Amino acid sequence: xxxxxxxxxxxxxxxxxxxxxxxxxxxxxxxxxxxxxxxxxxxxxxxxxxxxxxxxxxxxxxxxxxxxxxxxxxxxxxxxxxxxxxxxxxxxxxxxxxxxxxxxxxxxxxxxxxxxxxxxxxxxxxxxxxxxxxxxxxxxxxxxxxxxxxxxxxxxxxxxxxxxxxxxxxxxxxxxxxxxxxxxxxxxxxxxxxxxxxxxxxxxxxxxxxxxxxxxxxxxxxxxxxxxxxxxxxxxxxxxxxxxxxxxxxxxxxxxxxxxxxxxxxxxxxxxxxxxxxxxxx
Length: 282
Prior knowledge:
11 helices
């Protein structure tokens, strides 16, 4: 029984010296001491090199989960441009079973009328990976049956992005105001289609607001675990400053309802910061 929790990245400036080292190249290794999953958002913008991915593999434990976003030229072309997909699949091979799912985040312009293209795409993909789809047209949430049937037929999961708590009241910080303009206002969805549900949750900069907003998810995730599912829950906040710590708090709250769930390991201590200058006698 495993619950995986994680953030939208494994390195952030505000985390340096707190969750990850202030310098060096082992930040993923330190992040993996706090969380056991991560969203691979950078792969949306550019396919990494094979050496880069091999470096990720060397730092991530065997039970760590990467949910990697498919390249945007694939997902944002209604799947008419898949020329780079073979190279993408090749370079992520060093991650092996750590690739929990390949995630197609579709634009708001992708609507129910485009489902045949999604169906053709999913059916052409190799069965060596699992797949997940995030849609941003509200029409899918109001009439979900066609998309649910397509995903069920292809074994893919529907990834909801819960932004309901974030948009409940107006923003109060620069980070929240920025997110207010960029994040999608999505209807709430709490159903799972497969044995590996993936949830993306956006809270607020205030910890109490973030925790209050995820309260509905705690019993849902606990039920999934009791059903034998293996969920992954990603915590976002507008500034993400406390996100690794919040992930562990969510895990603890679920574990309080599911005592058989093993606790996350304690994070290892960070290396001592390097001195700013040469040593002195005084």
